[in-house]
Design goal:
The protein has helices spanning 62-69, 91-96, 113-123, 128-141, 157-169, 187-204, 238-245, 250-259; strands at residues 24-33, 36-46, 51-55, 77-82, 85-86, 98-101, 175-179, 207-212, 223-228, 231-237. It has 264 residues and is an alpha/beta fold. The structure holds adenosine-5'-triphosphate. This is ABC transporter ATP-binding protein.
């Protein structure tokens, strides 16, 4: 059963949690589908330059949370602020600062790589000259400049993912959201995509929220938000969450957190 019928545990306050002025600030966010509570009072922050893993099992509420942050769903309870812009009151300013890579691939396989990027840039109202300059910069960065005029269907899964990330960065967002972006990729491609997004955090100060159910996608130095059955059980740097739970590894911390307080 997916409803929460018992009182949730208090999230553990962990040192090293969101900086004073995070790029993404989520406070008291709740969402229900009829009688089913998908999110119940979720709060956390993602600061600039931090790769933050939103870690949760299937059904934890990750996609619902992303749908609220991207305004696919309206926020009815709680608040979402992006760079200080409230999603309800200033959605245009907030959304302009977000780049998204959805769980399902969204490139048009029959268009070329550059056509996909131009289309996205046009939707964001970028000038054609800016689109060309930024597209060639992003494609060079992911090592796919020479594939710009090829149809997307000729690319590997990992290359397509990197093009999706390049596309999401075209309008220069401050916050990049990725929902299970490594689904379907082999171990090596997964590592490459993870390395690439870590580099973006470090080099551009991008705030990243990376949703996954794969614990090994969180590295030391990353932030982590443990979401379980619609509740945040812990958030902070990986090392701090481990220390607060008395666990040697994040695997162990996750098992301890999800075994206590929230009933199946
Ligand atoms: N459109 C919907 N209508 C009804 N219930 C929904 C809907 N979308 C999600 N849910 C329910 O909300 C809860 C959270 O689902 P959500 O898809 O957000 O989780 P998730 O962490 O993204 O899981 P997954 O990794 O499987 O995608 C689940 O109990 C799910 O069944």
């Amino acid at each position: 059963m997916d409803c929460f019928e018992t009182a949730p545990p208090e999230p553990r306050a962990v040192p090293g949690d969101a900086a004073a002025d995070p790029v993404l600030a989520v406070e008291g966010l709740s969402h229900s589908f009829g009688a089913r509570t998908a999110l119940g009072g979720v709060s956390f922050g993602v600061p600039a330059g931090r790769f933050t893993v939103l870690l949760g099992l299937n059904g934890a509420g990750k996609t619902t949370l992303f749908s609220l942050i991207t305004r696919i769903y309206n926020t009815r309870r709680g608040s979402i602020r992006v760079f200080g812009f409230d999603m309800r009151r200033h959605p245009t300013q907030a959304l302009a600062r977000i780049g998204v890579v959805f769980q399902q691939p969204t490139l048009d396989p029959d268009l070329t790589v550059i056509q996909n990027l131009r289309y996205h840039g046009g939707l964001h109202g970028l000038a054609p000259a800016d689109i060309e300059a930024r597209a060639s910069e992003e494609l060079a960065r992911i090592g796919l400049s020479e594939r710009a005029d090829e149809r997307v269907r000729t690319l590997s899964g990992g290359q397509r993912r990197r093009v999706e990330i390049a596309r999401a960065l075209l309008h220069r967002p401050s916050l990049l959201l990725l929902d299970e972006p490594t689904v379907g990729l082999d171990i090596e491609l997964r590592r490459q995509v993870l390395d690439h997004v870590h580099d973006l955090c470090r080099e551009r100060g991008l705030a990243v929220l990376w949703a996954t159910h794969l614990i090994d996608e969180a590295r030391d130095g990353d932030g982590v938000v443990v979401l379980h059955r619609g509740r945040v059980l812990a958030s902070g740097l990986v090392e701090a969450v481990c220390a607060a739970t008395g666990a040697a590894t994040l695997d162990d911390a996750f098992a301890r957190l999800t075994d206590t307080g929230v009933r199946e």
